[in-house]
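Lab manual, section 2.4: Encoding a predicted structure.

Procedure: take the sequence of the chain (79 residues), apply the prediction step described in section 2.3, and record the output as structure tokens. A sample record is shown.
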Amino acid sequence: MLLCGPTGTGKTTIIKDYCGKVENASLQFLSVVLSSRSTCKQVSEQIESKLDKKGARNVIGPKNGKLIIHVDDINMPLK
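Recorded output:
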């Protein structure tokens, strides 16, 4: 799902409120906030921290259910 709108309209708050209500043992929520200093490695580490490792290089979803990943501010300026 992609939630679009002007700056300051509460998009992040809406998503976090919803996910806070539905989060339980079988449904986890991760918020990844991007900035101009974010690197691919940082984003990968954040996401992989919520996943389970299967072997040396593979990751799978959480054992107990599903993971919702909220990526905040995907409209990053070009450098």
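Check your result against the sample. The longest strand covers residues 27-33.
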